[in-house]
């Protein structure tokens, strides 16, 4: 199979092509999911001439099964939990509470790491939330639930690639879903990227600095 995207930046440029109807509007803000979504969103924001901001989300992973996300946690207390995944993993309520507590600590750490970055108030704006892929939809749904509390006028969930039922997985938590690829045989996002190396915090800081802000100090 020919790899559609050489890396996340190339995927971002392809995704930006599907979002050109939002280019040059002063009410649009692009928000990236950490960390993989940032290189993609940086290209989208550049193409649309829109501000780039962050939405920080932590996946809730099954103990001993990192490939099985149970849901996700986002700032503001929003949480998305997949009952089917919890049943499959055999996770008890007390275990889930422990996982949520641990990821809450990491969420606070990451918010502190990026708190020095300037922010754009989403209220009344069109917000395009970008990630590098959509697999279960857990991270995106948690992020969008958090975002809704800020009263944006319109919310777009945007990814380069995801399974053929991606829009159904997002549901009504977004007003619009945009993607480049939705293969019926989707297995994992990495097969659609030439380079799908994990994005580091330092790379995130550098990308944010390029959009005009000052990067926060290293953790």
Quick recap:
By secondary structure, the chain is of the alpha/beta class.
Give a description of the structure.
- With 219 residues, the chain is an alpha/beta fold.
- It has a domain of 142 residues: Rossmann fold, CATH 3.40.50.
- It contains seven helices and eight strands; from the N terminus they run H-E-H-E-E-E-E-H-H-E-H-E-H-E-H.
- Helix 1 packs across helix 2.
- The longest helix is centred in the middle third of the chain and has 22 residues.
- It is globular.
- The C terminus is likely disordered.
Q: Could you say which structural class the secondary elements and strand pairing correspond to? A: alpha/beta
How many H/I helical runs? 7
Average the pLDDT over all residues and give the rounded result: 89
What is the CATH-assigned architecture of the domain at 8-56 and 118-210? 3-Layer(aba) Sandwich
Question: What is the overall shape?
Answer: globular
- The CATH topology of the domain at 8-56 and 118-210: Rossmann fold
Total strands: the figure is 8
The top-level CATH class of the domain at 8-56 and 118-210 is: Alpha Beta
Low-confidence stretches: 212-219
Helix content: 25-40%
Q: What would you report as the Rg, rounded to the nearest angstrom?
A: 17 Å
Largest sheet: 5 strands, parallel
Lateral arrangement of strands in the main beta sheet: 2-1-6-7-8
Give the H and E element order.
Answer: HEHEEEEHHEHEHEH
- Sheet-strand content, in percent, reads 15-25%
Distance between the termini: 39 Å
């Amino acid at each position: 199979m020919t790899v559609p995207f050489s890396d996340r930046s190339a995927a971002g440029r392809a995704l930006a092509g599907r979002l050109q109807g939002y280019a040059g509007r002063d009410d649009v803000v692009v928000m990236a999911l950490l960390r993989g979504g940032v290189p993609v969103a940086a290209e989208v924001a550049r193409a649309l001439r829109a501000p780039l901001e962050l939405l920080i989300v932590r996946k809730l992973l099954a103990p001993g099964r990192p490939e099985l996300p149970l849901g996700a946690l986002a700032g503001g207390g929003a949480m998305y939990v997949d009952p089917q995944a919890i049943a499959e993993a055999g996770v008890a309520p007390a275990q889930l509470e422990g996982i949520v507590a641990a990821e809450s600590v990491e969420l606070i750490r990451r918010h502190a790491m990026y708190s020095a970055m300037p922010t754009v108030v989403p209220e009344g704006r069109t917000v395009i939330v970008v990630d590098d892929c959509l697999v279960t939809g857990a991270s995106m749904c948690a992020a969008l639930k958090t975002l809704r509390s800020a009263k944006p006028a319109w919310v777009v969930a945007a990814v380069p690639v995801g399974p053929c039922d991606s829009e159904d997985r997002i549901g009504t938590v977004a007003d619009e879903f945009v993607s480049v690829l939705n293969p019926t045989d989707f297995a994992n996002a990495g097969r659609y990227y030439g380079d799908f190396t994990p994005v580091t915090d330092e790379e995130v800081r550098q990308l944010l600095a390029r959009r005009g802000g000052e990067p926060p100090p290293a953790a």
